[in-house]
Amino acid sequence: MAVAHRGCVLAGYLLLLLLAGCKARIHSLTLKNETRFAVDLNTFGFYANGTLDVNLVSLRLQEQLVNYSNYPVGFSLSRSRVNGVLSYTAEETETCPLTLTKLTSTEPLILFLIDIKTLSVNVRAIGEQDNLLRAKPKAEAPKGLRKTRQEPANAANTPDVSKPSTNRDEKADDPDNKLNKDEKDDKSVESNKDIQKEEKPEVEETEFQLGKNKQLTLALDKVNGSYNFSFHMVVGLLAEGLYSLKFHYCQNRVPGVKFPYSFSVEVTEVNPDGYLSAAEIPLSRLYICMAGVFFTAALVWVYTLMKHRYSVFKIHWLMAALAFTKATSLVFHSINYHFINTKGHPIEGWAVMYYITHLLKGALLFITLALIGTGWAFVKYILSDKEKKIFMIVIPLQVLANVAFIIIESTEEGSSEYYLWKEILFLVDLICCGAILFPVVWSIRHLQEASSTDGKAAMNLEKLKLFRHYYVMIVCYIYFTRIIAILLKVTMPFQWQWCYEFLVEVSTLIFFVLTGYKFRPASNNPYLQLPQDEEDVEMDEVMTESGALEGISKVKKTCNGRERQKESTL
């Protein structure tokens, strides 16, 4: 238990450190010296009139070593009706999506190709589109600027140079920007650069209907060697779906070639009802309703324990603590989603409470299931060495799983460690689920051997039957929540993917109720009848056969010193 305590403290420190960088649905990602050819920035389900804001703050590339005409760099925005794992990238593993000119599947696609030579972003809309794009188009260079660069040095003395600039922009007539006739050519070039800088802020953002404009050219700015641009997109009525935003560096797709690049991007996604994705909008109400159901079930369980308090063991109160912890975790989870939906990010205090209760719930769940599987406090009070090893494995793994869960929740999807911790969480969770089955299997094997050797075959067969039911319950719970529910999530439409969480919570509730019913503290429960000594069994048989004590009840005190139960002797 000391290992579990140290693990909980470590997880608590980690979650406090990680919450400082948690941005939730207002994403901010910075990658330095990255070599991946594709970076998954985010996946979000949009309803009609939802908005997507992407701001590429800075992008630094290898300008001399890479031919970006053959190996482009930029963003792709794909739309799907189901989960993002079925997007085009699963099919086009060898071809860079930025080089596509037509659809290879039924999913619409929007490409943003960055051209550093012309300082422009070429937008290519593929497939049926109903989105509205708002961005700054690329403006042509002023005619006066082009002429000045081509004219000889005395061209600065001619009055015709400033006239096109005057018609192009009123700021060119500013006295501060006019040149004296005696100035040199280098001053003329610097003045034209100043005019160009003053013209950039005047290029206003323009709205483009992507259904009509399949090819667009946006402005790309360069500041101190880094490139930046931004765009704002409004989802149309016919364009609802699950959108996946990715960054591509096609050069690194070539085997053996890895050029580093760095970029910083800010992404904000908003639906008409808040910052949550379409599949996450109902989750706040779902969690608070399920918290009420679990809390009610916990109260019923406590009432049952109080009613049969003379046949209650410590494991029963541990089961009650698990039910209350589960309800509390769902309450904080609901509050966390509420603030994410309204503010775009979680409130750190509520998020910390949710992570703490989630950690406790996970640890209590596997500890309780393993203790029930070993029969601890029901038929024995000492765990064997191999059963103790199970707990020495499960408890640290549960702490690791909760740390991985906290890191996943607090890390941007595009970061390299996100998928590493996601794989760790999946693997550790499966190991824990498999580990808690071993005590049940050992107990079943022990009861099978005991039923054929001792004189208490009927009692052992009843326990064996109950253990087999418990084994089937655990296997069904693991299989449904870890496999079936995930398959349903992948195949469901994007707006119904919240049903995955609903099925997981309902299956957990059913599993808790069945486990409580099977191991209820009732006198007629065969599993809770402690084994008697052989002498007591023989004495009961003698007294029954003689008939001398017919109608007399014997008071039996169990070995735990708490239960007093009357048994009629026939």
From TrEMBL:
The UniProt entry's GO CC annotations, sorted and at most eight, read: Golgi apparatus; membrane
One Pfam match, given by its short name, reads GOST_TM
Give me the stretches of Polar residues compositional bias: 155-165
In the UniProt record, does the keyword Transmembrane helix occur? yes
Primary residence: membrane
Q: What is this protein called?
A: G protein-coupled receptor 108
Where is the GOST seven transmembrane domain positioned along the sequence? 282-526
Give the Basic and acidic residues compositional bias ranges: 166-200
Transmembrane portions of the chain: 285-305, 317-340, 352-378, 390-408, 420-442, 469-488, 494-514
Q: Which domain of life is it from?
A: Eukaryota
- Compartments, record wording: Membrane
Mode of membrane association: Multi-pass membrane protein
Q: Which UniProt keywords apply?
A: Membrane, Signal, Transmembrane, Transmembrane helix
Q: Where is this region: Disordered?
A: 137-208
Under InterPro entries, the record lists: GOST_TM, GPR107/GPR108-like
Which residues are the signal sequence here?
1-24
